[in-house]
Each structure stands twice: as structure tokens, then as C-alpha cells.
Automatic annotation (TrEMBL):
This is Oligopeptide-binding protein AppA. It comes from Adhaeretor mobilis. It comes from the Bacteria. Keywords: Signal. Residues 1-26 form the signal peptide. Transmembrane segments: none annotated. The gene is appA. InterPro entries: SBP_5, SBP_5_dom. GO terms for biological process: peptide transport. Residues 21-67 are annotated as: Disordered. GO terms for molecular function: peptide transmembrane transporter activity. Residues 37-55 have a biased composition (Acidic residues).
Length: 669
């Protein structure tokens, strides 16, 4: 498995997870899935007609591949080799690296058989279960049952199979299963090139150039070889400006490259504009087959409208371990193991993916998903707090499953469209933040399992500020004072605040858009009730995920609920908060924040970088483009047949792109 650009999106994009609930809700699952949260992507069948988005008329603009690339005449490879003073970088087996790390940790306290009998809850049991069942497969794979299928759970539908167009957690799930990576990282975000795709990786002494030699036994699912020319072509596609081409997430970072050039079928060179701390993640972007898209793009730059592109959406040509075998919209997609990924000319050249197929089921309702888990119809899911506490301790749950919890840098919030007439004023946004009943949110809805948020970066991250913002408590008097100062008062005595805008009296009445899980609805409803007390009317609008996602991209909202997971580097937050960036849904803009993001990627000293991002954290907190609500750890249930799961701040699936260590043993209790 691989992740294309997920490492560059603070979120692995999370696009809206159900993080908590006091009764019956559907938490998301993500991996990540930035960020994202790996956010809850619920689907409402009543709104499916909205997902049939009306396409605008095609633009008459000519298609010019790579027209956003600044002119640059690259040296010859011979000239490069003479002048670069190449420094070798690690090329590693991802799972072997994880195995080495685990060998240095304390061995499991209990056997697998004992761990399978334990219930999670009593002190120490979580660690015992996680370490015992996290045991990796044998290096030679002889103890793996390769005939097994794996049934996973998501709460929102797959919107696209095109890795360049991804923007949701489920999109990234598919890209992860079907894609190939040329740069990877471990649980601690240390980068290396994976042996399954790369022969060598070198960086010039001045840090301005990276050279990779990729393997000659890589193929697309249509049988054509994967070459360095595919990488160059994909870079040029991502760096193409065209009215019809919308690339939501993967251009960030890629645009910091001066050029990506294929010198032959296997040698690819990345030229950086300058030596940045983010040069490594900037080299990660998804790859499309040149031999197909160089023919289809001139006809349809949107990659959506033409018959051929619609065919590719349903029958994508991929280069990873799995290929799409079935897709039923709003229900599931299924990928099957691709023999030509790990076999080449009759020989096994890569590790065989552990599962014959992976079925990813869309179940929006958390109660329905939990019933499916207990029946064995799905084999993993992210649990809501009350599910963790009171619905997964019975024999029906433990018959097929166990559960574990671990750290995850996932953050949930209310987001404001600062171009909205309601939320342009920082005082109003702060009034909203003071209006929230955090005690009810955290202790009742979230069962006291989540930590109240203190801003965009997680308290355990290296960039979190030393003098962190203070936790906000509900203060309705303060909220009302701020609204008065901003000019929102009840001038006509009808109980609703109003303000004269452009000569018209406007009541403070708006829609609060949220995802269709119970957690999202509960949190939004709580906010509505809080605002009722200070003369503001919020209409809670639960919205099918793909519709909500598009409305976010189009800035068609006043206030929305969402969540982000973490990337490998804090610079990826630029895509969310810098002026004019694709996932800056709320249109927030601050020149100092923009400047600091540029400064942060140029600074190579980690402590100095941390100070820069801490400043960004503080400025964002002061401006309140979001009302930050809570950080959500990982609470997962896994079928007892599964082994080898491990967690990082990105969740159980995102610690090491390029490999999945989860498997089913050939012999098991």
C-alpha cells in the first residue's frame, strides 16, 4: 500500500469524522484519512440527488501541460553527477524497518492466546493486547494466510479513484491500496525510499537536487511498465493551470519543486527551488500512467467529463498492490491483489500483499456498523466514545473482536467562512467560541475521553507552543459583550440579534453545516442551543459527505463542522490556512501567517522551525478562523483474526506508506 500525497495533507485529510457521541453516532474511520480526524464521512441517501453535481460548461482555454512550471534549462545527467557531490539516502524495506524498531522495545507481556481472552478497560490491558496482537508476520511470510480477505469500514463514499483528484479520507483509502510510493516514512516521520520501488536515492550536497533510480520491474495494471517518464508527466499535470482542472490537495508542496525530469526510463531527478526543510515531502505526489493521460487530457482537462475519463474512473489503471474489482456507489468498493505487482517474468520480486482482497464498506450509521462488526460482516472500525465504554464489553463483541486505543493527532472544530457577513469580524468568531458549552460537549457527548483542543497543532507534537493558549470555558456574558462590540444587537426587540449591512437590517440567522452522523449532529445541535441563549439562530443542516465536501471547496457555507488529521510536517497546514490555498475552505487570510509558513519551510533547524510554527499556532488562535473543539485519540476495534496493527500520530494505517503490516496468520487460536 502507498499513500500518494497523504503525507502532505494535514490530514491525511479528514474530512469530517464522527469523533464522539453521547448516544448513537457514526464515527468515522480514517486512517486517517487527513488530513485528515480522519474524518467522518457520512452519507445521507435522501440527499444523493445533490451529489449529481451540475457540471459547468467546458472552458475554451487551451490545455498546456505544465504551464505553471517556471522556465528552467536542466543540466545533463553527466553534468549533474560531476557537480552534485551526491549524498546517499536510506533505501529500506518498510516492514523490516518496523520489525527492527519493535525488536528494541519491550516484548509482549502476554501471549497471543492470552491477549485474545483479555477485555480492554482494566489498567494495563490495552498495552498487553496491542503489543501481543501487533506481532508482525515472519520475514519470509510463511506464517501468513494469503487466501484471506479483509473487510474494512468507512462512513463516506469513494468520490474518485483518480489519485490526483483525491480530497477525502475514503479517496485516500483507495489510493493507499492501489498506488505505489517512491518515498516513505516510519512511525517517527523519518524518510526513506522503499525497496519495493526504488534502487537508489541520493541528494546533492547543497540540498537542491534529489536523484532516484527506480526499479525496472514495476508495471501498471494494464501491463505497461512504470517509468520515470510517468513521474515527470504526473508532476507536469499537477503543475498545470487550467480552468477545468481542479486539484484539491496534492499540488501543495509539489509547487515548491523547480522541475522534475526523467533522464531515462529509470532515472528521475527532482530539482528544488531552494533548500527547504520540506524538500522530502515535496517530492511525494501521485503518479498517473503517461501513456493513457497524455492522450485524454487535451480532450478533457477536467478528467471528469469525457467518456474515456468516466471509464477510467470506474476502471482505473493503477501501479500498486491492489486493483479495483468492484464499486457500488454509497455501498462499497473492492480491490483484489494484483499478481503483476509482486511477480515479474515468472519470479517474485516484491512482497506479496497479505490479503487476497480488501472490501471497503460504506456504513454511515455507527449502530449499524457496530452490529456488522459483531456479526463479523466488517473486521475493523473506529469506535465512538460510548461504543468504547458501554457497547463493546459484552460477549457478542468479544466473540469476534477486540479493541485498542492509541494516540492520534486528530483535531475537530467549527469552521467559519470569514467572507460571510456573519463571521468576517474576529470578535464575532470569538463570541462563538465563548458560547460553546465545553463541559457538555466533552463530558456528556464525548464521555470525557477526548482532550479539549488548544489550537491547530497537537500538544504532543514538536511544534506545539510552550506557552500554549489557555483552555476556553463557556462565558455567555463575554460572548454577548463581543457581539455588542461588533454591532450585532437586537434593534427591533424580536429576540434575535441583527445588524444593518448595506442599508438592510440583517438578522443573525444562518445554517450550520455538519456531517450526517450523530456525533456531528449532536455537536452542532449543542452549538445551536448555546447560540439560542445569546440571540443567534443557527439552523443545523446535516449534509451528505460528498456534497458537504464540494460546498467546502466552493466556499458555499457560513459555518461548518470538520476535522483534520496530521501530516508528516506542519508546513502542510499552509494548504488549510494560507491565503488562497485549495483547502482554505473558510477563506481565512493573514499576511503574517503567510509569511511565517514561507519562513518555516526555509528554516532547517528543527528548534527554530518549531518556534515559527508555534507563532502560527498562536496567531490562528488569536484570529479564531476555527472554534477548536477537541483532540480525538484512536479507538479501534479489530477482528480477532487480524495481527500486525500499529499506530502512529496518523492512525493505524498511516505510519508507513508503501506497506501494510496487517495480516491473518496461517495458524491462529
Amino acid at each position: 500500500m502507498t499513500i500518494a500525497k497523504l503525507s502532505l495533507t494535514l490530514c491525511c485529510l479528514l474530512a469530517l469524522t464522527a469523533g464522539c457521541s453521547s448516544s448513537t453516532e457514526a464515527p468515522p474511520k480514517a486512517k486517517q484519512s487527513e488530513e485528515q480526524a480522519i474524518a467522518d464521512e457520512s452519507t445521507d441517501s435522501a440527499e444523493t440527488s445533490e451529489t449529481e453535481e451540475a457540471e459547468a460548461a467546458p472552458s475554451d482555454q487551451p490545455f498546456v501541460l505544465g504551464n505553471a512550471i517556471v522556465d528552467f534549462d536542466p543540466p545533463t545527467l553527466e553534468e549533474l553527477d560531476e557537480s552534485a557531490d551526491w549524498q546517499d539516502n536510506p533505501v529500506l524495506d518498510s516492514e523490516a524497518q518496523l520489525r527492527k524498531e519493535l525488536a528494541e522495545e519491550e516484548p509482549p507481556e502476554v501471549s497471543v492466546e492470552e491477549a485474545l481472552k483479555l477485555k480492554n478497560g482494566p489498567p494495563g490491558n490495552n498495552k498487553k493486547i496491542l503489543t501481543a496482537l501487533g506481532v508482525l508476520a515472519d520475514a519470509d511470510g510463511k506464517n501468513v494466510d494469503y487466501d484471506q480477505d479483509f473487510v474494512r469500514h468507512v462512513t463516506g463514499d469513494l468520490k474518485t479513484t483518480n489519485p490526483v483528484m483525491v480530497s477525502s479520507v475514503t479517496d485516500f483509502e483507495f489510493s493507499d491500496l492501489s498506488g505505489l510510493g517512491f518515498l516513505s516514512f516510519d512511525r517517527h516521520f523519518n524518510y526513506f525510499a522503499p525497496q519495493n520501488s526504488v534502487v537508489s536515492w541520493q541528494t546533492s550536497k547543497d540540498g537542491l537536487t534529489d536523484k532516484m533510480v527506480i526499479r525496472d520491474d514495476l508495471t501498471w495494471s494494464d501491463g505497461k511498465p512504470v517509468t520515470a517518464h510517468d513521474i515527470e508527466f504526473s508532476y507536469r499535470l499537477i503543475m498545470t493551470d487550467h480552468d477545468d482542472l481542479v486539484i484539491p490537495a496534492v499540488r501543495q508542496g509539489t509547487d515548491q519543486l523547480k522541475l522534475v525530469k526523467a533522464y531515462d526510463d529509470h532515472t528521475i531527478v527532482y530539482f528544488h527551488k531552494t533548500a527547504l526543510a520540506t524538500n522530502k515531502p515535496n517530492m511525494i505526489f501521485p503518479i498517473l500512467p503517461k501513456h493513457i493521460y497524455e492522450k485524454t487530457l487535451p480532450e478533457d482537462p477536467s478528467m471528469k467529463r469525457s467518456k474515456r475519463h468516466r471509464e477510467l474512473e470506474d476502471h482505473p489503471v493503477v501501479n500498486g498492490g491492489y486493483t479495483l474489482s468492484k464499486r457500488v456507489r454509497n455501498q462499497e468498493f473492492v480491490v483484489k491483489r494484483r499478481e503483476s505487482y509482486y511477480m515479474h517474468n515468472g519470479k517474485q520480486v516484491r512482497k506479496k500483499p497479505y490479503f487476497k482482497s480488501v472490501r471497503v464498506k460504506v456504513i454511515e450509521d455507527a449502530n449499524t456498523a457496530l452490529l456488522a462488526l459483531k456479526k463479523g460482516d466488517i473486521e475493523e472500525m473506529l469506535l465512538r466514545p460510548e461504543q468504547w465504554e458501554s457497547q463493546t464489553g459484552d460477549a457478542a463483541f468479544y466473540k469476534h473482536n477486540t479493541k485498542v486505543t492509541a494516540i492520534e493527532w486528530t483535531n475537530f472544530f467549527f469552521q467559519y467562512n470569514v467572507e460571510s457577513r456573519y463571521f468576517a469580524d474576529k470578535k464575532v468568531r470569538w463570541a462563538m467560541t465563548y458560547a460553546v458549552d465545553y463541559e457538555e460537549l466533552l463530558k456528556t457527548i464525548c464521555r470525557d475521553l477526548y482532550q479539549q483542543s488548544q489550537g491547530t497543532y497537537h500538544p504532543e507534537s514538536w511544534m506545539f507552543p510552550e506557552n500554549a493558549p489557555k483552555i476556553v470555558q463557556q462565558d455567555l456574558d463575554k460572548a454577548e459583550d463581543l457581539l455588542d462590540e461588533a454591532g450585532w444587537d437586537d434593534s427591533d426587540g424580536d429576540g434575535i440579534r441583527d445588524k444593518m449591512i448595506d442599508g438592510k437590517l440583517v438578522p443573525f440567522e444562518f445554517a450550520l453545516m455538519t456531517y450526517t452522523s450523530e456525533t456531528g449532529i449532536q455537536a452542532a445541535t449543542l452549538m445551536k442551543e448555546c447560540l439560542d441563549q445569546i440571540g443567534i439562530i443557527a439552523h443545523v443542516k446535516s449534509t451528505e459527505f460528498t456534497v458537504m465536501q464540494q460546498k467546502n471547496l466552493d466556499h458555499e457555507f457560513d459555518m461548518t463542522m470538520g476535522g483534520w488529521g496530521t501530516s508528516t510536517d506542519p508546513d502542510s497546514n499552509e494548504n488549510i490556512f494560507a491565503t488562497g490555498q485549495n483547502r482554505n475552505y473558510g477563506q481565512y487570510s493573514n499576511e503574517e501567517v503567510d509569511r511565517l509558513f514561507k519562513e518555516g519551510r526555509k528554516e532547517l533547524d528543527k528548534e527554530k522551525r518549531a518556534a515559527i510554527y508555534a507563532k502560527i499556532h498562536q496567531i490562528l488562535w488569536d484570529d479564531q478562523p476555527y472554534t477548536w473543539l477537541f483532540y480525538r485519540p484512536a479507538f479501534y476495534a479489530f477482528n480477532k483474526k487480524l495481527r500486525g496493527y500499529h499506530f502512529s500520530p496518523r492512525g493505524p494505517y498511516n505510519y508507513s506508506p508503501g506497506v501494510s503490516s496487517i495480516y491473518v496468520p496461517a495458524e491462529r487460536p
